[in-house]
């Protein structure tokens, strides 16, 4: 069977019956009653005007993050990203992560496409693409888990799909930036390979160990919300430049799996893990909600609803985002948690990850820009103030932000973590929201 036939079969595979949609009445996207109300809501966007907010985002991206990458992280000798580096620029080692290479290719390709077509950005992406070519796996195999500084393999092949999907997303963005068809085709091949692996009934049986350690019961072939998320994101990136109906079907299937299957109407949160047939597993997975993954996938679902021109889906996803963000909120110290290990026991992982905060900022600005919902403006304002107060490392002499910390978002908590530079979620948040703010300012001009 040809590759496209295999991809089509996987895309169109039947799922289980749909779960009832949102059961609580929640006006998720209502407009303010007047122009004054809209302006009042806008004042809650971090207590800044849109112009001031735009200046902050532009500075964080172009004056802080990009120069640090230029001077400390981008490998001028071999290409790629030396992310095993501390926040002060101290290099831990010179090994590279193929996932971070794929993500870096996406970031710099996106920068080139949407922020002035600076050839220096495209050159960074090109050299990372070239670096990855030195570890490209055989047909059907996954990319290795680590590479040496020169790009040659330093670790065994991966056994799960995130690395290859990260590279696929990067190749698709690079194809969009350069017009080079071969990278679009490479992206599609990687996507098809990952989808076939994910569909296996024995895929990733130890997925639960991420949450519950070595004693977690096996869950082979689990339907993983985070996997639907990265499949959706990669597919959406390709659909920006290729309206392939098979990929349209895949995007719909990924989004519908999250919206119609992972949502648990009993406690009105998303279950991270389901059985292969989409039935709900027994404990501990029945009570597990990865709130951070829902916060991250929500703007992707909003994008998909916009692509479909489905206002009802947009409203539904906005309401569910609000529900998850409120449940994730730390009423004591601020910010959001990312994992609710047991819903009924109210048992959270108490560390705070920057990406969970920033995905919430992308979600809420998206919703506010689309329909002026005051709750979205208020939530954006609270999270933005929390992030700006707690995560930048300027007081420690660095332009970077902590990528994670303890519940109090302390520097001490951050200093105990692995020494690395985050090269994807932070710049993605800055770029997405900067573009959104520019569009909002343009609409008001």
Structure characteristics:
mainly alpha; disordered N terminus; 16 helices; 445 residues; two-stranded antiparallel ribbon
How would you describe the overall organization of this protein?
This protein is mostly helical. The chain has a domain at 16-76 and 269-445: Glycosyltransferase (Alpha/alpha barrel). It contains 16 helices and eight strands. The protein has helices at residues 3-11, 35-42, 50-73, 98-114, 119-132, 162-178, 181-198, 209-212, 225-239, 245-262, 291-308, 311-328, 354-371, 374-390, 411-415, 425-444, and strands spanning 223-224, 263-264, 269-270, 273-274, 340-342, 347-348, 352-353, 404-405. The strands form four sheets. The protein has a two-stranded antiparallel sheet with strand order 1-4. The protein has a two-stranded antiparallel ribbon with strand order 2-3. A two-stranded antiparallel sheet has the order 5-6. A hairpin with a 4-residue loop joins strand 5 (340-342) and strand 6 (347-348). The chain starts with a helix and ends with a helix.
